[in-house]
Design a protein that fits this description.
The chain is mainly alpha-helical and 212 residues long. The protein has helices spanning 2-14, 26-43, 47-50, 53-62, 67-70, 78-96, 111-120, 125-132, 136-148, 161-174, 180-185, 192-211. It is rod-shaped, with a radius of gyration of 29 Å.
Amino acid sequence: MQGERARIAPDRVASNAAPVGSDIDPELREYLREWRRETAKQQNTAAFIVMHDTTLDEICRIHPHSVRELLHISGIGERKAELYGQSIFDALRRFEKGSRSSPGPEKKASPAAETMRLLAEGRTFDEIAAIRGRQRSTIVSLISDLVERGELKFQPEWVDQKKQNKIVDACGKLGLSKLAPIKEALPPGFTYEEIRLVVAHLRRQEEDNVAS
């Protein structure tokens, strides 16, 4: 067992960054990786415990058809040959007959990325809320955070210019740390959404001024 562990340890390090060699069929490699994922899932263990990338790559190169050939592959001892040998041979045969790995699940855009995409399309806050199935206040809060972090540029049309000016004046007197005092200092008709957007914009400007 110690000999097998000593042989496997370098594979684990190399599997993180080892490039795929030109002599390796990328489709076969991905097919074997899928076999490994399914095997690991069935055994409730990590994929690298089943087999390392370097071992899979060697299987791709050699195409073993017997246990003797399998035992010549680095990272495969008698125990792994016994556990996975027949399963590997079956996978190789399926691949030779035309079987291929299933397409991976399509990655969903993050809420921030999806919101910015919809804004770029010219969607209103209400439209974005409806499309994303969220409250308008949630969308405005996210947009404000993006503005404050400098990931999204504040758009003047989001808040009426006269209201912007009054919010800026109130912020100049009360600071930017809390929204409630600003809201209390403003006339009726100003919403927290409007205040939050303008305050985010002013905080971003402060950050940029400090950085410069």
